[in-house]
Amino acid sequence: DMLYEADNCKSKTEFIEKAIRFYCGYLLNKDSVAAEYAATQITAITEGIVKGTEQRLSRALFKVAVELGAVSHMLAAVHEIDDDTMIKLRTMCTDEVKRINGIINFEKAVRYQRN
């Protein structure tokens, strides 16, 4: 009971299936088929890791986009910025993000705006 939960299996059946696959791989390891077994297992593990990372990044980006949208609307509500200034600001920000590789420093932005 402890082992299947520690292995993050949703059921005992899933744990038993994984154990059987592992044992079959162990038996195949004695033959030339081992490389095929290992490649399949590595592929499955890698795909799982990539999918999990992809999901976490997607959720994080969604949250950032929501916050950025809220900040943008608040700024737009309190400041009257003409279209020309807005276009220049977007161009400046695009160039800056490219130059600094996306690592934005708030203190540097404040100093820039004060000048």
Helix content: over 70%
Query: What is the CA–CA distance across the termini?
Result: 65 Å
- What proportion of the residues form beta strands (DSSP E)? under 5%
Number of strands: 0
Helix-strand category: mainly alpha
Label the overall shape. elongated
Our count of helices gives 5
Largest sheet: none
Rg for CA atoms: 26 Å
Helix and strand pattern? HHHHH
Unreliable runs: none
Task: Tell me what you see in this structure.
This protein has 115 residues and is mainly α. The model has no long low-confidence stretch (mean pLDDT 84). The protein is built from five helices and no strands. It has a domain at 81-115. It has helices at residues 2-6, 12-28, 34-78, 83-99, 106-114. The protein is 81% helix and 0% strand.
Topology, please?
Blueprint: H1 2-6, H2 12-28, H3 34-78, H4 83-99, H5 106-114
Structural features:
115 residues; mainly alpha
Produce a short descriptive summary.
The chain has 115 residues and is mainly α. Helix content is 81%, strand content 0%. The longest helix is centred in the middle third of the chain and has 45 residues, at 34-78.
